[in-house]
Amino acid sequence: MFTIGYLLEACAKVLDVVLNIYLWIVVARAILSWVNPDPFNPIVRFIHSVTEPVLGRIRSMLPIHFGGIDFSPIVVFLAIIFLQNFVVNTLHRLAFTFLR
Predict the structure, then answer these.
(1) Among candidates 88, 90, 60, which has minimal Cα distance to 75?
(2) Domains of the chain: which residue ranges?
(3) Backbone angles phi, psi at 65, to 5 degrees
(4) What local confidence, expressed as pLDDT, does residue 65 receive?
(5) Residues in CB range of 2: below 8 A, 6 or more apart
(6) pLDDT (tens digit, 9 = 90+) per residue, 41-59?
(7) Which of 29, 46, 72, 91 would be 58's cystine partner, CB 3.0–4.6 Å?
């Protein structure tokens, strides 16, 4: 049973790292929205292509634009924080029960 515990612990750590990386990509996207970046820059295109599916879906479900401010990155931040605090911690706790 310890192998299941180690597998769950590894999944929890990987998921936590992936969520942290995506959080910082969304932060970069929000900062880029304040300036006028070159749309042909490969980094800008990568950030836009990685974040737009999630942000676009949130914009279509919750059309909240007050004064031209886009609140979809805030919703993504809250969702990532929820996933880190609930799913990742649940996986850690579940792995701990298998490792006892």
Answers:
(1) 60
(2) 16-88
(3) -130, 105
(4) 65
(5) 98, 99
(6) 999 999 999 999 999 999 8
(7) 72
Nearest 5°: the CA angle 3, 5, 23 is 120
- Residue 1 has a pLDDT of 81
pTM of the model: 0.89
Q: Taking 90 as the threshold, does the pLDDT of residue 29 lie above it?
A: yes
Model confidence pLDDT, tens digit, residues 60-91:
888 766 777 888 999 999 999 999 999 999 99
SS3 letters for the chain? CHHHHHHHHHHHHHHHHHHHHHHHHHHHHHHHHHCCCCCCCHHHHHHHHHHHHHHHHHHHHCCCEECCEECHHHHHHHHHHHHHHHHHHHHHHHHHHHHC
User: What's the one-letter identity of residue 55?
Assistant: L
